[in-house]
């Protein structure tokens, strides 16, 4: 970027310098510097865009997180209240409006953290970097949630083991990076801890029947969710806006 | 390892044979596959059609026993849901009550007040009924509290007790409340929801009959009130029910009632999908479609992307169908909700294999036969396909051992689906792919010439030969033949293409229409909502025959085998007169004529009364039970035969029960007006509906007109050539955004431009006529013209020099006369005389020409008008050539003086002098020092044409066909140096640092060194900082003696002519027709590597400062090399025909070929990311501005593409009249301007405008 500006300046200045003494030179120089000024202004605006790109990515991830949280919440609702959508939606609106927001924020953080970690570790993620794979990953994630919500398991142990196997399978199929695994694990632990804290402090409570099962599937869901959001974040980071590249030259 | 290797070989060989087979017999194989798909799907016919309607099953009442949980072998038609006890047994008591005989003194409220009042006594009767110590309390279904969301219904629906529903619930089953209720209708209607509702309303729930059949209305025509008392029993005690029935019948006999009482109906409800479940479902489907979209858009380099994408989707879908079909065939019935698990199945099976196959097949060498290509593609991917499949099977197997039944079932389906998917991939998709590839080759043959003349044409099937036209020979390896554009390709983003495709074919509308028709058909067929019954009832009601005209069969749904037609028929005939209601037969007749307003109501029982609940919404029972948090999904209820109760009330009773306010209600209207009123309401509704429909259609039409003003549906309107002066738009009516960019047109060449060179600040172009022009790359002003002297060689030496000098002013005999019209560069054209003057040692002209040098500053806009006006007067002052000669003589003296003080004497004699202020001349006056040297530079061989040109600093190096290397001063237009060491034509030049490398036609490579006698200091003003250019500056160069010496000549660098020469990073890379690439070191001209790997002549090479070396050949292959080791990094076949140009960025390689395709490859993995179809003949023009901005040329336009997405960012049209010209060459300058060469014109486009546009 500075190079480019320099070049702009040099090219706009050089004719002016050479036309020393020429009657129109001063005016020409004025014009040229005006042109250069407008050009550098344009570049400055582009630079602003560059800084907003991170925000934009975060916003996309936040939206995805909120949406996924809503969808998964609806998935978890028991069947028998399903005939009263207003009922279900009422509880959704009233009880815990902050849950989707929290999920969205977490998604944004995790999704931005993944590519950041990749670049810090110096091992760019090359495995299956395409949108189709990301879509597949999201679908499998929703599927895991679906399974945890709708299937009848014999006991919670079975539920936990199955979900753990599924989550590991998700990571193996779509990620396969150590950093992804570590971050997913960290996410799962932290999120479970936070959820536990919230529940123990009485801020949020499960309905009485599902306390056990929630504890058994929550970590797995958080792990696979972390991997999924990380996948999205990496993909978003990969397709950057093109004027960034213009600036980098 | 050996086992693995052997296995791998075997698999690969098997796939190879299979590929040959598939490509050889496409049609039989497709037929076979379709047949096997159909066979496997046949068992699906047995499965019920999707639909949410309940299904029914009828058993007799007499021998009823609660079905056991275990399936008991084959019990006739017993459905599989008929197991275990039902949720509830429903006993309904259907009450028909009427005040009879009707009295004219009665008010309308009497029609229903007293009949409704009787419900309380009936309820009492039912509640207190006891049969052998069993009361209703012990048998009935005990319900707890209502759902929390239904608090407002708490007072109405029963809680904590028997589920007993009747209209009495409106008044909490209390007679006194009913009696004190001033307005019954208001009480009933206050709970009705506003607006449109589909499910059962509270009125329906409590009355048990559809709202308008209750007769609770002021305008009731029949004056019969109908309602039911619904009792839900948890246990079935036949004796209790029978005694209740007989008791009620005994109390309230229905004489003319012959309802059947021997059948009970079991109704099974399917799972209903509520909105809370619908959202996740829709989400999964959206994700699925996104997945399919992103997958199939990677299909590339095939004839029909859509066709192959469709084939891929068909493969996956039919493999799923096959899997379900096979599982059903072998006895496994699907219990999972198909709609829910379907997306997951698709995702698990995936489209990856299909894409891998396609990619592998299209990346095989194009000159092979189709069969072999398919076979090679298959065999090269066989191992990975098998490995993937094995992995997936193992994962699914692990899933199977979770021992969760649902997951096990899912896994079973997935396994069968995977296997059948593999089968379909191998047979169906491969065959479709082979057909597609064959089609592409056919189309290719028809469209263009074969790859190259040098190689034998690839073997093609015989009949094709006759069709193809003899290919025109290509003139050289460099030039691309320009063909008339057969069609104008769409240059649109893919999204828009999809939208336009949809819009053009009206695909969405048609699919929706077909879907609707099919869905309606299914609805009618399964009849879930009792639609036909409802219609039949409507017809019966509206028909003049009244209640007698009910067709016998309509009451029975087809899935319901219980309705015995004969018995129904026997019931149907009109009820016979009974003794109890005296006026009945008379009333009957009266109502038939419809003329007697005083007709007494009569109560009749028809077959439609047998199962009143059929006339209700099919969600009646689910919603009733769901209020108590009992789901009926996947469960069933048993409905016992209805108990008919007929109540006849005398007018006295009715009058007695009147509430004081009842009489104040609506005045009594005659029956006739009510008739009319009901009719009117019907018509009103119809008219309203019609009106609404018309308004909707009009609205949509207006919207359509507003949103889609163009008639894109019609072909051929704007199809062909666009008119001149009009913005170009393609066949779909899409016109690219009007850009504010007005590209600078650089005109001046009289013939087509052949060579183009630039160093960022200056731009040199050379046309076929041999004229070289130097332009300012910033402003587009022409600085210098170096004419081709060969044209004038024959003329007398005295004249032509002068003429040359005044070319722009005397256009009549001037080949460069175009310049005269050019307003911007008259001064600079005058400079054209300079070289000639120098050669023939004629000082006057030399001097005369010097004032024109200020054209260097012509890039300032303010300067041009000044010069222009002065030159406008010029022709008048300069009329004859003789005068000009004379004038030259004057200048001769002046020139000699000028050696001492050049500025003084110059201006007065020369006409153009006033325009040039003395200050300018001062800087020019330094030139003559170098003059003698230039004279010594020999008169060149002017017949030869310029074959190659390079520009560094202010030196232009030109290589001529005669083998001469010339160095020109770009600003002054003077010949600085000339070297004639070689005799073979210079095909390519590279100018790096102070070295010039020239490749000659005979395959030799010459290294020259450019020496100056003086180091220079003003470099920073001229060259871009990144480049080490020849030490040169306009202020100094004329003083320097530049010599160009041949340092080394590599005689046999290549066996055949060198076609490409590139130099960067201290390396010189040459490519030749002899299929090899050689790398030389620039300093010592030492050959480092000879790179072999192409099977055709080299046509393009890319090397940059980062030592990336890529080469493309006539075989369509692209090789990436490691310059340090000389090893080949990757090798891909990307094009059909020559690779015409090649550019690398940090992450990708961009290549374009004679097939007009621009391919973008990942540099590290050499996987093709995507490709862009160019217009015919424009394939070679290509440039990269930054790592993500690609520029391509088209018909009179350049397009900017986003490299990351492959999306078209903007198209810039170069001029209104340039549409017919292809952009043949594209040069990206350092200041991000683009120079493109089309025909004899150049165009400068600045890229920052793209940036501004996107901001």
From TrEMBL, chain A:
It holds the Pfam family INSIG. This is Insulin-induced gene protein. It is a multi-pass membrane protein. One of its GO terms (biological process) is SREBP-SCAP complex retention in endoplasmic reticulum. It is found in: Endoplasmic reticulum membrane. Mediates feedback control of cholesterol synthesis. The chain crosses the membrane at residues 58-77, 97-117, 129-147, 181-204, 216-233. The keyword Transmembrane helix applies. It comes from Astyanax mexicanus. One of its GO terms (cellular component) is SREBP-SCAP-Insig complex. Belongs to the INSIG family.
Automatic annotation (TrEMBL), chain B:
Pfam families: Beta-prop_SCAP, SCAP_N, Sterol-sensing. Residues 908-917 have a biased composition (Pro residues). InterPro entries: Beta-prop_SCAP, HMGCR/SNAP/NPC1-like_SSD, SCAP, SCAP_N, SSD, WD40/YVTN_repeat-like_dom_sf, WD40_repeat_CS, WD40_repeat_dom_sf. It is a multi-pass membrane protein. WD repeats lie at residues 1091-1131. GO terms for biological process: cholesterol metabolic process; lipid storage; regulation of cholesterol biosynthetic process; SREBP signaling pathway. Its main location: membrane. It is found in: Cytoplasmic vesicle, COPII-coated vesicle membrane; Endoplasmic reticulum membrane; Golgi apparatus membrane. Keywords: Cholesterol metabolism, Cytoplasmic vesicle, Endoplasmic reticulum, Glycoprotein, Golgi apparatus, Lipid metabolism, Lipid-binding, Membrane, Repeat, Steroid metabolism, Sterol metabolism, Transmembrane, Transmembrane helix, WD repeat. Residues 277-435 form the SSD domain. Residues 581-604 have a biased composition (Polar residues). The chain crosses the membrane at residues 20-45, 273-294, 306-332, 344-368, 389-407, 507-525, 682-704. Residues 450-478, 566-604, 811-861, 901-936 are annotated as: Disordered. Escort protein required for cholesterol as well as lipid homeostasis. Regulates export of the SCAP-SREBP complex from the endoplasmic reticulum to the Golgi upon low cholesterol, thereby regulating the processing of sterol regulatory element-binding proteins (SREBPs) SREBF1/SREBP1 and SREBF2/SREBP2. At high sterol concentrations, formation of a ternary complex with INSIG (INSIG1 or INSIG2) leads to mask the ER export signal in SCAP, promoting retention of the complex in the endoplasmic reticulum. Belongs to the WD repeat SCAP family. PANTHER family: STEROL REGULATORY ELEMENT-BINDING PROTEIN CLEAVAGE-ACTIVATING PROTEIN. This is Sterol regulatory element-binding protein cleavage-activating protein. It comes from Astyanax mexicanus (Blind cave fish). The lineage of its organism: Eukaryota, Metazoa, Chordata, Craniata, Vertebrata.
């Amino acid at each position: 970027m500075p190079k480019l500006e320099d070049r702009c300046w040099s090219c706009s200045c050089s004719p002016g310098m050479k036309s020393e003494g020429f009657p129109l030179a001063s005016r020409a120089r004025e014009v040229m510097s005006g042109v250069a000024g407008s050009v550098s202004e344009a570049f400055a605006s582009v630079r602003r865009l560059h800084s907003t790109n991170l925000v934009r990515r975060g916003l996309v991830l936040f939206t995805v997180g909120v949406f996924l949280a809503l969808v998964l919440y609806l998935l978890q609702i028991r069947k028998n209240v399903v005939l009263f959508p207003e009922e279900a939606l009422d509880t959704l609106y009233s009880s815990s409006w902050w849950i989707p927001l929290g999920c969205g924020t977490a998604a944004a953080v995790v999704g931005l953290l993944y590519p950041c970690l990749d670049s810090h570790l110096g091992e760019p993620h090359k495995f299956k970097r395409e949108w189709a794979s990301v879509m597949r990953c999201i679908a499998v994630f929703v599927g895991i949630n679906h399974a945890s919500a709708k299937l009848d398991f014999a006991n919670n142990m079975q539920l936990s083991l199955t979900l753990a196997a599924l989550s590991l399978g998700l990571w193996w199929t779509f990620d396969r990076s150590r950093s992804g695994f570590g971050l997913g694990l960290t996410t799962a632990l932290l999120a479970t801890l936070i959820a536990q804290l919230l529940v123990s402090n009485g801020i949020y409570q499960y309905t009485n029947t599902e306390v056990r099962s929630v504890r058994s599937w929550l970590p797995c869901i958080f792990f696979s969710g972390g991997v999924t959001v990380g996948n999205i974040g990496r993909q978003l980071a990969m397709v950057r806006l093109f004027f960034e590249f213009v600036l980098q030259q | 390892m050996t086992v693995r290797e052997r296995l791998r070989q075997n698999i690969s060989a098997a796939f190879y044979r299979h590929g040959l087979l598939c490509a050889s017999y496409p049609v039989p194989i497709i037929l076979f596959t379709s047949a096997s798909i159909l066979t496997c799907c046949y068992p699906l016919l047995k499965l019920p059609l999707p639909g949410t309607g309940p299904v029914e099953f009828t058993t007799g009442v007499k021998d009823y026993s609660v079905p056991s949980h275990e399936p008991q072998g084959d019990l006739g038609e017993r459905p599989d849901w008929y197991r275990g006890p039902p949720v509830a047994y429903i006993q309904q008591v259907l009450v028909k009550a009427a005040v009879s005989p009707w009295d004219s003194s009665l008010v309308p409220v009497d029609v229903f007040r007293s009949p409704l009042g009787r419900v309380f006594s009936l309820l009492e009767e039912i509640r207190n009924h006891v049969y052998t110590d069993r009361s209703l309390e012990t048998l009935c279904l005990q319900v707890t509290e209502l759902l929390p969301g239904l608090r407002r219904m708490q007072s109405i629906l029963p809680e904590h007790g028997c589920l007993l529903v009747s209209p009495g619930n409106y008044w909490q089953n209390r007679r006194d409340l009913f009696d004190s209720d001033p307005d019954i209708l208001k009480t009933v209607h206050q709970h009705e929801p506003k607006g449109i509702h589909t499910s059962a309303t509270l009125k329906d729930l409590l009355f048990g009959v559809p709202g308008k059949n209750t007769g609770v209305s002021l305008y009731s025509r029949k004056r019969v009130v109908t309602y039911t008392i619904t009792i839900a029993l948890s246990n079935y005690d036949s004796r209790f029910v029978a005694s209740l029935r007989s008791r009620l019948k005994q109390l309230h006999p229905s004489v003319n009632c012959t309802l059947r009482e021997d059948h009970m109906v079991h109704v099974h409800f399917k799972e209903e999908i509520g909105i809370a479940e619908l959202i996740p479902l829709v989400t999964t489907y959206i994700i699925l479609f996104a997945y399919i979209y992103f997958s199939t858009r990677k299909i590339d380099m095939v004839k029909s992307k859509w066709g192959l994408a469709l084939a891929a989707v068909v493969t996956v879908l039919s493999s799923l169908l096959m899997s379900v079909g096979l599982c059903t065939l072998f006895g496994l019935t699907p219990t999972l909700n198909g709609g829910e698990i379907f997306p997951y199945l698709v995702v698990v099976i995936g489209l990856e294999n299909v894409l891998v196959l396609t990619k592998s097949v299209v990346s095989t060498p194009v000159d092979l036969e189709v069969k072999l290509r398919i076979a090679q593609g298959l065999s090269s991917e066989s191992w990975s396909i098998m490995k993937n499949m094995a992995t997936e099977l193992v994962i699914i197997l692990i899933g199977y051992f979770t021992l969760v039944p649902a997951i096990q079932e899912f896994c079973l389906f997935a396994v069968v689906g995977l296997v059948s998917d593999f089968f379909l991939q191998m047979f169906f998709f491969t065959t479709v792919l082979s057909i597609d590839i064959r089609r592409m080759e056919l189309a290719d043959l028809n469209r263009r010439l074969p790859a190259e003349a040098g190689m034998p044409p690839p073997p093609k099937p015989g009949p094709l030969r006759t069709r193809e036209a003899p290919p025109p020979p290509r003139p050289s390896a460099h030039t691309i033949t320009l063909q008339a554009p057969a069609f104008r390709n769409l240059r649109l983003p893919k999204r828009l293409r999809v939208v336009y495709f949809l819009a053009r074919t009206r695909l969405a509308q048609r699919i929706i229409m077909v879907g609707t028709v099919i869905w309606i058909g299914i609805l009618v067929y399964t009849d879930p909502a009792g639609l036909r019954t409802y219609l039949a009832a409507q017809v019966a009601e509206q028909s003049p025959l009244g209640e007698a005209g009910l067709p016998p069969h309509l009451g029975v749904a087809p899935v319901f085998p219980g309705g015995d037609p004969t018995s129904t028929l026997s019931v149907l005939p009109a009820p016979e007169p009974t003794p109890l209601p005296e006026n009945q037969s008379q009333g009957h007749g009266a109502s038939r004529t419809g003329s007697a307003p005083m007709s007494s109501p009569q109560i009749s029982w028809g077959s439609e009364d047998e199962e009143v609940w059929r006339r209700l919404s099919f969600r009646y029972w689910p919603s009733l039970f769901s209020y108590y948090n009992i789901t009926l999904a996947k469960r069933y209820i048993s409905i016992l035969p209805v108990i008919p109760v007929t109540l006849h009330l005398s007018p006295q009773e009715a009058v007695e029960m009147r509430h004081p306010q009842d009489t104040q209600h609506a005045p009594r209207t005659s029956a006739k007006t009510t008739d009319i009123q009901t009719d009117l309401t019907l018509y009103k509704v119809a008219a309203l509906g019609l009106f609404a429909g018309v308004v909707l259609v009009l609205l949509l039409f207006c919207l359509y007109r507003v949103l889609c003003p163009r008639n894109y549906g019609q072909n051929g309107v704007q199809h062909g050539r666009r008119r001149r002066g009009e913005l170009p738009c393609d066949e779909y009516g899409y016109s690219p955004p009007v850009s504010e960019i007005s590209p600078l047109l650089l005109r001046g060449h009289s013939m087509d431009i052949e060579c183009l060179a630039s160093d960022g600040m200056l731009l040199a172009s050379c046309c076929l006529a041999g004229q070289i022009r130097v332009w300012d790359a910033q402003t587009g002003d022409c600085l210098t013209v170096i004419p081709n002297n060969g044209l004038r060689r024959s003329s007398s030496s005295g004249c032509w020099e002068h003429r040359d000098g005044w070319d722009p002013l005397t256009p009549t005999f001037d080949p460069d006369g175009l310049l005269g019209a050019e307003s911007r560069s008259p001064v600079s054209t005058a400079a054209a005389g300079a070289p000639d003057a120098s050669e023939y040692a004629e000082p006057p002209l030399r001097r005369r020409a010097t004032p024109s040098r200020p054209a260097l500053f012509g890039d300032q806009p303010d300067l041009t008008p000044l010069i222009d006006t002065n030159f406008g007067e010029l022709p008048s002052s300069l009329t004859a050539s003789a005068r000009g000669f004379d004038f030259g003589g004057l200048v001769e003296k002046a020139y000699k003086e000028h050696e001492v003080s050049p500025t003084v004497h110059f201006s007065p004699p020369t006409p153009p002098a006033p325009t040039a202020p003395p200050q300018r001349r001062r800087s020019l006056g330094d030139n003559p020092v170098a003059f003698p040297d230039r004279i010594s530079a020999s008169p060149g061989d002017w017949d030869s044409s310029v074959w190659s040109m390079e520009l560094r600093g202010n030196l232009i190096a030109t290589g001529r066909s005669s083998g001469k290397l010339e160095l020109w001063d770009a600003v002054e237009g003077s010949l600085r140096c000339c070297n004639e060491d070689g005799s073979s034509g210079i095909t390519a030049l590279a100018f790096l640092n102070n070295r010039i490398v020239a490749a000659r036609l005979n395959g030799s490579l010459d290294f020259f060194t450019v020496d100056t006698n003086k180091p220079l200091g003003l470099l920073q003003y001229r060259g871009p900082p990144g480049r080490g250019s020849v030490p040169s500056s306009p202020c100094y160069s004329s003083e320097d003696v530049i010599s160009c010496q041949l340092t080394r000549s590599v005689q046999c660098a290549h066996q055949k002519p060198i076609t490409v020469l590139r130099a960067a990073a201290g390396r010189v890379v040459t490519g030749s027709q002899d299929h090899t690439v050689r790398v030389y070191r620039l300093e010592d001209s030492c050959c480092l590597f000879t790179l072999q790997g192409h099977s055709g002549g080299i046509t393009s090479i890319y090397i940059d400062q980062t030592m990336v070396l890529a080469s493309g050949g006539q075989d369509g292959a692209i090789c990436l090399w490691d310059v340090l080791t000389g090893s080949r990094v990757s090798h891909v076949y990307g094009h059909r025909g020559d690779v015409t140009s090649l550019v690398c960025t940090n992450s990708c390689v961009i290549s374009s070929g004679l097939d007009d395709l621009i391919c973008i490859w990942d540099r590290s993995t050499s996987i093709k990311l995507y490709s862009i179809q160019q217009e015919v003949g424009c394939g070679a023009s290509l440039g990269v501005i930054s790592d993500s901005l690609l520029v391509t040329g088209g018909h009179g336009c350049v397009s900017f593409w986003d490299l990351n997405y492959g999306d078209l960012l903007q198209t810039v049209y170069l001029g209104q009249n340039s549409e017919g010209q292809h952009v043949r060459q594209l040069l990206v300058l350092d200041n991000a301007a683009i120079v493109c060469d089309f025909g004899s014109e150049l165009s400068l486009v600045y890229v920052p405008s793209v940036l501004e546009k996107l901001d």
